[in-house]
Amino acid sequence: MSMLSEQISGVFPRADDIPDAHRLPSFIEQTEYLINGEFRHWQGPMGETFSPVRLHTAEGLVPVRLGRYPLLSEAEALTALDAAVTAYNHGRGRWPTMSVAGRIGHVEEFLRRFKACRAEVVKLLMWEVGKSLADSEKEFDRTAIYIEDTVEALKDLDRVSSRLDIREGIIGQIRRGPLGVALCMGPFNYPLNETFTTLIPALIMGNTVVFKPPRLGILLYRPLLTAFRDAFPPGVVNTVFGEGRKVVGPLMATGQIDVLAFIGSSQAADALKKQHPAPHRLRCVLGMGAKNPAIVLADADLDLAVRECILGSLSFNGQRCTAIKIIFVHKTIAERFLERLSAASAALKYGMPWEPGVFITPLPEGGKPEYLGKLVEDARNRGARVVNPDGGTINGSFFYPALVYPVAPGMRLYDEEQFGPVVPVVPFDDIETPIRYVVESNFGQQLSIFSSSSDATAALIDPLVNQVCRVNLNSQCQRGPDTFPFTGRKGSAEGTLSVSDALRVFSIRTLVAAKNVEQNKELIREITRERKSNFLSTDFIL
Length: 542
Description:
There is one protein chain. The chain has 18 helices and 25 strands. The protein is an alpha/beta fold. It folds into 2 domains: about 75-285, Aldehyde Dehydrogenase, Chain A, domain 1; about 290-480, Aldehyde Dehydrogenase, Chain A, domain 2. The protein has a 7-stranded mixed beta sheet with strand order 15-18-19-14-13-21-22, sandwiched between helices. The chain is globular and about 85 Å long.
């Protein structure tokens, strides 16, 4: 056994080894869920949450039990939906008819309460999904900034809408109105941020919401339930916990969901859409799979390409839809690239989420290390090798990154989205090879190009922007900044998310119009002057 293998075998701590500041939180017995502005307490079946962190004990490695959460039934899910439907009341409810400034006030009050939960939520992020302390803090803080930016974006949008237009003898005011009831579901890898990038814009535009936290990352919402309850009117925010097939399917089948915001697999998204009895009425905001390639040309700056590819492939263990999931490298530089990539991988610190500078941490999905091991073994059986020493070593929920080369068509790693710390590298000598891969892929989110040649780069940009929705030059694939559009082609996304795009995707343009005659002008003057309408209004939000 190598020294590295021995270190990996001892990656998990004993309970006494955990620093006091990051010790296991008390066992969380969550029975409460939020419906119609009230906490209800569940006395039925419960689900259990285990941490990806395991502890060394006299009996060996033991998974850490974090807590339990309600496994609600169809009846409770439909009660949550009824509360949201009632609060929306066909667009006549208090929330959808409230002024923009009023809704902003509620969101700002929620933000104040949200920030007060930072320490508790960050600790639960670490323990529930294995995210490093630094990345957990970053996710929380980025979410707070996203809420602030959403408020400012809506102010800007409303200022433009606060004026009356007079065209062709018609007076009109155009604003954006809500769509109805939104069902919001986020992913485990960014259980807070990705959920809030749909939840907050849906709310602030006047929709009422039913949201289901991801199964991995569910307990971190417990401290936020009080903030939701106290910041929003009854029925505006309602929570559903439990197994998706038992609680989400019945919600869709009612036909009362107007907006589906879902981040997960395309198969799950298709199944949900099919359960809606009137899919033509359903607005969908979907973030699905991706197999983002990096294309490293012969003239690339190797140090830069390696640095960005390592970050893009292995940040949060590669568990990002925006991760670089396959690397095409020109044959003339392949060996030098692999040598440097292997060295960069070996330099990454691995360990527990609370350790300073840690980069590679345990995986939260049960059975994921074994799944990744099978992908690597399939590639080996078909002629590839693991380049880095001890790559693919498994210890419980921990998987040491594996750099696999040469990956080729027919291997599972070539097409399958691995969503974990396995880095497939494909050699090429004809640029048509990576281009054809992108064209034939079922995914179309992003890609990265590494080159020092403006001619070579430009020749790739023009065809590839019609295949993916973001082309990154000499940099890793990523989502941010949140002011940039985030979407995908093919099976990667439906709808566009950015701070401003999200406001539009959760709303629809609506207008009030009248012929430009004196009687109508006086009517409009009186309504706006005396502030009789929240929609037909010339108030300007500062």
